[in-house]
Amino acid sequence: MTNRSGKGALITGASAGLGEAFARLLAAEGHDVMLVARRTERLQALADELSATHGVRAIVCTLDLSVVGSAAQVQAAAESADFQVDILINNAGLAEPVSFLNLPVDNVRAMIEVMITGLTELTHRFAQGMADRGWGRIINVSSLSAFAPNSPGMLYTGIKSYVLNISQALDMQLKPSGVHVTALCPGFTWTEFHDTQGTREWANQLPAFAWQDAPTVVKAGWEAVTRGEPVCVPGVVNKAVASFTKHLPERLRYLFGKHARMVH
Ligand SMILES: NC(=O)c1ccc[n+]([C@@H]2O[C@H](COP(=O)([O-])OP(=O)(O)OC[C@H]3O[C@@H](n4cnc5c(N)ncnc54)[C@H](OP(=O)(O)O)[C@@H]3O)[C@@H](O)[C@H]2O)c1
């Protein structure tokens, strides 16, 4: 397989927010990019811009990652485009403003498919090649919420805890082969995320210091995976929150979480 310049980076959820910021950062560093999401027009516009600006190869793969089998389709698309994946950014994600029993089971399945099954399967499909070649970088986008107490009926936190946990396990196995795996755990980040999940009004009430912008978050994540850090919590405020919440006694975490009202 041939990449034109640098390494080949596959980025899921590249049509907006953190995924778009990852694509911009990696293309600016001279890496070819393969952009995956559902909104083709956005992906194509970004791909055209990145290849014109940075002279890298930028290709588009329009897929709904909530559909069973989509990870195999991503791999097939990479192979048919002769695109070698050295860098994998498992970023696509979503949350629902509705708690477990009020959420249609198809939405439950979609969240798990995109953020657990898809992420895990894409890693499995591409990590072996990276290990065989002796070099690879994988960033799995988790969340600060993975450290926080959960709240009633919230599926998202459990999913992001899985992402944090499995990323550490994979880093332990893969690092001796030259493949670094990092769980990137952003706090509140200015993207479309809170519009899509319907929590913008709630989120807007948070103080400005609680927020980061997407380029700052992805830069921290990329530097962390480069250094071989298995977990990256970007920003001083988020680091303080993570270290406070993860050290709370279990009973207190439960009580805190029980009275939080993130979803209805
Ligand atoms: N923003 C925050 O405050 C925050 C905090 C912590 C963690 N995160 C995590 O960061 C990651 C990126 O989120 P973001 O903030 O950049 O949100 P965003 O602006 O809403 O972008 C989400 C991306 O995921 C893609 N996506 C969603 N469902 C998909 C599906 N079924 N198939 C393919 N692609 C899909 C979207 O593309 P299409 O709609 O075009 O398919 C979009 O490119 C997520 O994993 C999120 O959980 C975000």
**How far do the termini sit from each other?**
48 Å
CATH fold-level name: Rossmann fold
Per CATH, the class reads Alpha Beta
- Tally of strands: 9
- Count helical runs: 10
Average pLDDT, rounded to a whole number, is 95
Residue fraction in strands = 15-25%
Q: Please give the CATH architecture.
A: 3-Layer(aba) Sandwich
Helical content stands at 40-55%
Poorly predicted ranges: none
Give the helices and strands, then pairings.
Blueprint: E1 8-12, H1 17-28, E2 32-37, H2 40-54, E3 58-62, H3 70-80, E4 87-90, H4 105-133, E5 136-141, H5 155-174, E6 179-184, E7 188-190, H6 193-196, H7 200-204, E8 211-213, H8 214-227, E9 231-232, H9 236-246, H10 250-259
Parallel strand pairs: 1-2, 1-4, 2-3, 4-5, 5-6, 6-9, 7-8
Helix pairs in contact: 1-2, 1-8, 3-4, 4-5
This protein binds NADP nicotinamide-adenine-dinucleotide phosphate.
Please name the defining characteristics of this protein.
single chain, 264 residues, alpha/beta, Rossmann fold, seven-stranded parallel β-sheet, two-stranded parallel sheet, 15% strand, binds NADP nicotinamide-adenine-dinucleotide phosphate
Description:
With 264 residues, the chain is an alpha/beta fold. The protein has a single domain, classed as Rossmann fold (3-Layer(aba) Sandwich), CATH 3.40.50.720. The longest helix has 29 residues. The mean pLDDT is 95. Bound molecules: NADP nicotinamide-adenine-dinucleotide phosphate. NADP nicotinamide-adenine-dinucleotide phosphate binds next to α1, β7 and α6.
